[in-house]
Automatic annotation (TrEMBL):
Key words, A-Z: Coiled coil, Phosphoprotein
InterPro entries: CH_dom, CH_dom_sf, DNA/RNA_pol_sf, F-actin_Monoox_Mical, RT_dom
Keyword Coiled coil set for record: yes
Family annotation (Pfam families): CH, RVT_1
Protein name in the entry: Calponin-homology (CH) domain-containing protein
Similarity-based family: Belongs to the smoothelin family.
Domain Calponin-homology (CH), chain residue ranges per copy: 230-336
Tagged with keyword Coiled coil: yes
Length: 346
């Protein structure tokens, strides 16, 4: 952000590219990583330590009670460990040298890489330079077993003035990358005017969402509390499983990651309002559309207050357990009041 503001103060427009890597930590090739360590002067006992850290493990797939044959992994570093981000940065070190060779500035944080070119008010040849850089980056990543996603790679043109300019396109791997008006960088929403209005609005909406969640009263009605809060939560979870059984792309195991794609919300609501939309046409990768459809349908047909913000749900890599639980409670309560859920009388 500071670099972009400084460039704008100097009267320069900027091109900012946000690279997207697919499952980056899982594709680190052990052989290539060890060679990179050797290239940095690591050898002897220390190199053997790293080799030991990466080897001696096995992985398998467990599905429906059946286990696959264990195999030793040849790629990937354990996520969550202190050492893994360091190893990933070492693996990516040569990429920085390649980017600097094109006189392109960059910032790297773990698997997030941003490329940045400030240019005089007229964009001149900056887009073509950036396209050349992106192509070399793509080739380097392919050779190093990293997968760059053109579909999810975003870029912004940040003008120094409000004068309308023709914005060229960037090209990567033969695919044209259209510019976007806003993007999310490490959780911060950035717009082409650098106004921070989107970020402030998101924080404000999040704060109001927490206030509304705090105002939601009590657990779902008519669910017996004899076992305490955990029993109520478990019973509500079992109810969700029962209502969504048989729906594709839905496997409710908790009140967090099981709801990440939005499909669980859609399935639960479709169970009671099957004519509201065609569930078979939904795509689990279209998270924003799924959340929007589910929340708006629940509000329209069940009078269920929209306690969750769609943008907040999309931004969260791991949905908040309490938020999901409170919304499902509210949905259950609304369905009971509509007479769509029958409960046992006390």
């Amino acid at each position: 952000m500071d670099d972009l503001w400084r460039a704008q103060d100097r009267g320069c427009s900027s091109i900012l590219v946000l690279l997207d890597l697919l499952v980056a930590f899982n594709t680190i090739d052990h052989g290539i990583l060890l060679r990179h360590l050797q290239g940095l002067g690591v050898g002897g006992t220390v190199l053997r330590w790293f080799s030991s850290y990466l080897s001696g493990c096995a992985q398998l797939v467990l599905a429906r009670g059946q286990r696959s044959t264990p195999r030793p992994p040849t790629c990937g570093v354990p996520q969550g460990s202190v050492l893994s981000p360091l190893l990933f940065n070492i693996y990516m070190k040569l990429l920085g040298e390649i980017i600097r060779g094109f006189r392109v500035r960059y910032h790297q944080y773990a698997d997030d890489t941003q490329l940045f070119i400030p240019t005089p008010d007229h964009l001149s040849d900056a887009p073509s330079m950036m396209s050349c850089c992106l192509e070399v980056v793509r080739i380097w990543m392919g050779r190093n077993r990293l997968q760059l996603s053109p579909d999810k790679t975003e870029w912004l043109c940040l003008p120094a003035s409000r004068i309308v300019q023709e914005i060229p396109s960037l090209v990567m791997g033969g695919e044209v990358l259209p510019p976007v008006d806003r993007a999310c960088i490490l959780g911060v929403l950035l717009d082409i005017q650098l106004s921070m209005e989107e970020q402030v609005g998101a924080i404000t909406r999040g704060a109001f969402a927490q206030v509304r969640l705090g105002a939601a009263t009590g657990p779902a009605p008519n669910i017996k509390r004899t076992g305490g809060a955990n029993t109520v939560k478990t019973m509500l979870l079992e109810w969700c499983r029962a209502m969504t059984r048989g729906y594709e792309h839905v496997d409710i195991q908790n009140f967090s990651t099981s709801w990440k794609s939005g499909m669980a919300f859609c399935a639960l609501i479709h169970k009671f309002f099957p004519d509201a939309f065609d569930y078979a046409n939904l795509d689990p990768t279209n998270r924003k559309d799924n959340f929007t459809l589910a929340f708006s349908t629940a509000e329209k047909y069940a009078d269920c207050a929209q306690l969750l913000e769609v943008d907040d749900m999309v931004r969260m890599s791991v949905p908040d357990n309490k938020c999901i639980y409170t919304y499902v409670q509210e949905l259950y309560r609304s369905l009971v009041e509509k007479g769509l859920v029958k409960t046992k009388k006390k």
